[in-house]
Design brief:
Residues 10-82 form the Insertion element IS402-like domain. InterPro entries: IS402-like_dom. It holds the Pfam family DUF4096. This is Transposase. With 104 residues, this protein is mainly α. It has one domain. It has helices spanning 12-18, 36-49, 63-76, 78-93. It is globular and about 45 Å long.
């Protein structure tokens, strides 16, 4: 991997955690052309900087493609699954149970 161009870019260990949680989009007759890692990094860049979709730097995939994947993952619940997986991973790392028990 190239060095991180932006603070929001993922390192290899971070990508290894997120990659299994995101399934590549499948369209009949259309192979996956854009690298999913760059699409995720573009979404994180947008979230971190607060820039507009159309102002996404040219180093990232085209903004309509990034938005399409983001919206698709949002509708499929992928972002909620990522949040839950990261929360559980963090809880286990600090010696707690994966799921909180106080609210149950």
């Amino acid at each position: 991997m190239l060095t991180a161009a932006y603070p929001s870019d993922l390192n290899d260990a971070e990508w290894a955690i997120l990659c299994p949680l995101l399934t590549p989009s499948r369209q009949a007759g259309h192979p996956q052309v854009l690298e999913l890692r760059r699409i995720v990094e573009a979404v994180f860049y947008l979230l971190r900087t607060g820039c507009q979709w159309r102002a996404l730097p040219h180093e990232f995939p085209p903004w309509p493609a990034v938005y399409w994947h983001y919206a698709r993952w949002r509708r499929a619940g992928a972002w909620d699954a990522i949040n839950a997986a990261l929360r559980e991973r963090r809880r286990v790392a600090i010696g707690r149970t994966a799921q909180p028990t106080a609210a149950t």
